[in-house]
């Protein structure tokens, strides 16, 4: 954008530019017979650009399509979701935003939690971790909000850069606070928490730490590649997904492994694959 303080300068610049172009018009203007060639060249360049873009998009989609176990995550930003229009057979897992920081509670969490479970979805909750709040108060916020259910997915801690908080703690202090929340959720729910994070945050902050904690990586350009090559469990491969029943774009995710691997994962968490379309209160 251009500020109003620069408007007079811009007007003068446009006027002088037009005069200069007019003075050179006889030299620079192509002949009428050359116009079709210019148009053809522009069309060709446009088609090539679109083709390259389509190629890369298709490759990224295809790389996620190789994983059969798919899911999505939502928050209040997705508005009113028509859960009855979404298939639990197509989407094997759903994560709902529950809390953020020390006191924020997602206003749609309780409604989404009840309706998704009633439709037979396997549901979990996630917390957006604020880097400038201590782990104890954030864990308490999550525990007060998310019911303890033996048939729910493990809790997720969303770890991302926050420009307003990044300098509050040193890396060592931050890791200790994350450890506090991790341990409290583990103790309360009896399930190994999962870390959702970006490649950059992992490589700088989490690398070589929490080696037993499953990773859920946000990476939209290609399959996740992390420093030290740890195995990832979930991959958020796009934020531009479309699902009938959800009025906005939505994050789409896959589980790394086959259908049998998914069942084994649930069993290791103390869960079992639930019958589809079985109402769960």
If you had to describe this structure to a student in words, what would you say it looks like?
This protein is of the alpha/beta class and 281 residues long. It folds into 2 domains: 56 residues, no CATH class; 200 residues, TIM Barrel (Alpha-Beta Barrel). Strands 1-2-4-5-6-7-8-9 form an 8-stranded mixed barrel, surrounded by 4 helices. Strand 4, helix 5 and strand 5 form a beta-alpha-beta unit. Helix 5 packs parallel to helix 6. The protein is globular, with a radius of gyration of 25 Å. The termini are far apart. 28% of the residues are buried. The N terminus and C terminus are likely disordered.
Concise summary:
This protein is α/β, with parallel strands linked by helices and 281 residues long. It folds into two domains: 4-59, no CATH class; 69-268, TIM Barrel (Alpha-Beta Barrel). It contains eight helices and nine strands.
């Amino acid at each position: 954008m251009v500020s109003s303080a620069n408007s007079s300068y811009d007007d003068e610049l446009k006027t002088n530019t037009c005069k200069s172009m007019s003075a050179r018009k006889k030299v620079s203007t192509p002949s009428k017979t050359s116009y079709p060639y210019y148009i053809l060249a522009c069309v060709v360049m446009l088609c090539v650009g679109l083709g390259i873009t389509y190629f890369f998009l298709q490759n990224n989609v295809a790389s996620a399509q190789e994983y059969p176990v798919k899911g999505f995550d939502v928050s209040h930003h997705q508005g009113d979701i028509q859960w009855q229009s979404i298939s639990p057979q197509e989407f094997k897992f759903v994560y709902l935003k529950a809390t953020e920081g020390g006191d924020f509670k997602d206003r749609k969490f309780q409604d989404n939690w009840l309706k998704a479970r009633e439709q037979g979805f396997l549901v979990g909750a996630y917390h957006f971790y604020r880097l400038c709040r201590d782990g104890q108060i954030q864990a308490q916020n999550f525990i007060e909000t998310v019911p303890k259910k033996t048939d729910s997915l493990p809790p997720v801690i969303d770890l991302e850069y926050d420009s307003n908080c990044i300098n509050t703690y040193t890396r060592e202090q931050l890791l200790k606070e994350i450890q506090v929340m991790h341990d409290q959720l583990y103790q309360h729910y009896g399930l190994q928490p999962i870390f959702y994070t970006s490649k950059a945050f992992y490589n700088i902050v989490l690398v070589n730490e929490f080696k037993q904690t499953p990773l859920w990586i946000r990476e939209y350009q290609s399959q996740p590649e992390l420093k030290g090559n740890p195995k990832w469990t979930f991959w958020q491969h796009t934020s531009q997904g479309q699902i009938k029943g959800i009025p906005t774009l939505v994050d789409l995710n896959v589980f790394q492994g086959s259908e049998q691997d998914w069942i084994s994962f649930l069993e290791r968490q103390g869960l079992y694959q639930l019958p589809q379309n079985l109402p769960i209160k």
